[in-house]
Automatic annotation (TrEMBL):
<dbReference type="GO" id="GO:0003677">
    <property type="term" value="F:DNA binding"/>
</dbReference>
<keyword id="KW-0539">Nucleus</keyword>
<protein>
    <recommendedName>
        <fullName>Xylanolytic transcriptional activator regulatory domain-containing protein</fullName>
    </recommendedName>
</protein>
<dbReference type="InterPro" id="IPR007219">
    <property type="entry name" value="XnlR_reg_dom"/>
</dbReference>
<dbReference type="Pfam" id="PF04082">
    <property type="entry name" value="Fungal_trans"/>
</dbReference>
<feature type="domain" description="Xylanolytic transcriptional activator regulatory">
    <location>
        <begin position="106"/>
        <end position="230"/>
    </location>
</feature>
<dbReference type="GO" id="GO:0006351">
    <property type="term" value="P:DNA-templated transcription"/>
</dbReference>
<dbReference type="GO" id="GO:0008270">
    <property type="term" value="F:zinc ion binding"/>
</dbReference>
Length: 557
């Protein structure tokens, strides 16, 4: 490739790729060789027939064809660590093309344009992206990217832009993956504030100031909005002190495919986007319900009064519930078990529509305590039934019922949902007044044993998971709840012998530092509302709101 004039920044890392480094890919791997030939009509640095060029090689040429010198408008010295290298680009190329076996596609970014303009992208976007995807490399490479990324975060020009916003979002994901939760939240807040400042909550087609954008750029902007909005909605439902913004997805259209001439983004069934949007609205609603209930009311009577719940939440609940098409709902008659016929119907439904499975029992019908008990019990039971179904498909023998292509549409159940269900069932078995147990028809031994067995089944599969740091206190709590349920099944209920101030353990997210260790409030939906865990009532869930609820129960005993 001596004839190729590459005007790359002077750096020992920038080397012209050797032919042996270029993956060999047949034209069949790119849809019969049609991919990217439209761009081969221009002159190339090689005096060869363009139709004979390997599409992967053409991607290299496209990227390196444009010089970088025009991007530097002054004589400012740039830290070499912030300059792009061929190794950076190759890492991104391998990631988006599966090592050169597919066209570059992403469900969020215009991956083809990203690779083509890689050397013109802001340093922070290039480096934080490479940091995130360098998990396939050795530790030295990962640490080097992390070191370079830290420098990029202190760059003097951090003017809000779509690229910078996405860079902060990637930094949020990476920080969360390595357990730096406080830093991850800061990155997310910064990205969301930029999103609002850039008015991305208005669809590009309805934004006259964006009329200069191409169809590809508008769709990329739209997809970036939905990615961040969904993450924001999830964060509202589980973060201890979530940040709140005036942000909705009402004015942004659903994602759509763009053809130029082939597909620009990953090909997915359109129903997936509808389900993603529905789930985002559901999580957003959970976050608002959680906020309304997380602070103790003035009296016990107020706890049972639905009048204290804002009317807007009632309206939103019914709107979200009715907004989910019936064809996307996984339906089964008995909350405690799924029949073989119902299982077959679910597999057929998921294979047809590929919806992302999310489920949580919500109860806003507080007309009577009995009605509330039955609804909560039914919802918790359905969550466990669906969870066991997913575990059977993903980790058990159910995988044999599906084709390899179908299995990617199934995932393991969310721990947040499992913990919420465990809390409900634990409270019914271990803490609910015996009179209410009798009135609700849940006091017989068969019901109690069935609850315990189903919780056992969930924990067997949950213990096989590799847990990220935020999930550890969730699973610890589930183990303690199950242990107390098991104790009640074996020995019956007994009054607590624990005295105030004898708490032996507090559940939270532990973070180790060089100088000290700390514990922060764990992720959860509605927490434990001040109740201690364990047969001896000697375990607490960490949180300021938990302390407030404990004081409330003491004052209203």
């Amino acid at each position: 490739m001596n004839g190729l004039n590459l005007e790359l920044p002077l750096s020992p890392h920038n080397q012209v790729p050797d032919r042996a480094q270029i993956p060999v890919v047949t034209d069949a791997g790119f849809g019969g060789g049609q991919w990217y030939y439209s761009r081969l009509e221009r002159a190339t640095p090689f005096n060869v027939d363009v139709t004979s060029i390997n599409p992967v090689l053409e991607q290299y040429l496209t990227t390196f064809d444009a010089p970088l010198s025009h991007t530097v408008n002054d004589m400012t010295l740039v830290d070499p660590d912030l300059l792009p290298t061929f190794q950076d680009w190759l890492l991104a190329f391998k990631y988006y093309t599966e090592s050169g076996t597919t066209p570059p596609l992403s469900d969020v970014l215009d991956a083809e344009s990203f690779l083509r303009d890689f050397f013109h992208k802001p340093a922070i976007l290039r480096l934080v992206f490479c940091t995130l995807i360098s998990y396939t490399e050795d530790d030295t490479v990962q640490k080097n990217y992390l070191r370079r990324t830290r420098k990029a975060l202190y760059a003097p020009d951090l003017t809000p832009s779509v690229e910078l916003m996405y860079a902060y979002n990637i930094a949020h994901i990476h920080a969360r993956n390595i357990g730096e939760l406080a830093l991850a939240e800061q990155f997310m807040q910064t990205a969301l504030k930029m999103l609002i400042e850039l008015r991305m909550d208005i669809d590009p087609d309805d934004s006259p100031w964006l009329s200069h954008l191409t169809a590809r750029q508008k769709e990329e902007r739209r997809r970036l909005f939905w990615k961040l909005y969904i993450q924001y909605s999830y964060a509202l439902s589980y973060l201890p002190e979530p940040f709140r913004l005036e942000l909705t997805g009402e004015r942004v259209k659903a994602r759509a495919q763009v053809f130029d001439p082939n597909s620009v983004f990953s090909i997915e069934d359109p129903t997936i986007d509808l389900v993603h949007q529905y789930v985002a609205e559901l999580q957003n609603l959970i976050g608002n319900i959680r906020e309304s209930h997380s602070t103790p009311p003035a009296t016990i009577k107020d706890c049972l009064s639905s009048a204290n719940l804002p009317q807007s939440l009632h309206s939103r609940f019914f709107a979200v519930h009715q907004g989910c098409p019936i064809k996307y709902r996984l339906r089964f008659e008995n909350p405690s078990r799924i029949t073989t016929e119902e299982q077959t119907n679910m597999i057929a439904l998921i294979s047809t529509f590929h919806p992302k499975l999310n489920f949580l029992g919500l109860n806003l019908e507080l007309e009577s305590i009995l009605n509330a008990i039955q609804q909560c019990f039914s919802s918790a039971s359905r969550v466990l039934s669906l969870s066991l179904f997913l575990e059977y498909i993903t980790m058990g023998g159910g995988a044999s019922l599906l084709s390899k292509a179908q299995t990617k549409h199934y995932g393991r159940p969310q721990l947040l949902n499992l913990l919420e269900s465990f809390i409900v069932l634990w409270f019914i078995v271990c803490r609910m007044d015996s009179q209410w147990l009798q009135l609700s028809g849940l006091d017989d031994d068969d019901s109690i044993h069935e609850i315990k067995e189903r919780m056992d089944d969930i924990m067997i599969s949950t213990r096989t998971r590799k847990l990220p740091k935020p999930a550890v206190p969730m699973v610890e709590a589930m183990e303690i709840l199950l242990s107390e349920v098991d104790d009640v099944v074996r020995n019956g209920r007994k009054s607590s012998t624990a005295q105030e101030g004898t708490v032996s353990h507090e559940l939270g997210i532990y973070t180790s530092r060089v100088d000290s260790d700390s514990i922060t409030e764990p992720w959860c939906y509605l927490r434990f509302l001040g109740l201690e865990l364990g047969s001896k009532r000697d375990v607490r869930w960490k949180g300021r709101k938990e302390d407030s609820w404990r004081l409330f129960w003491k004052l209203n005993a």
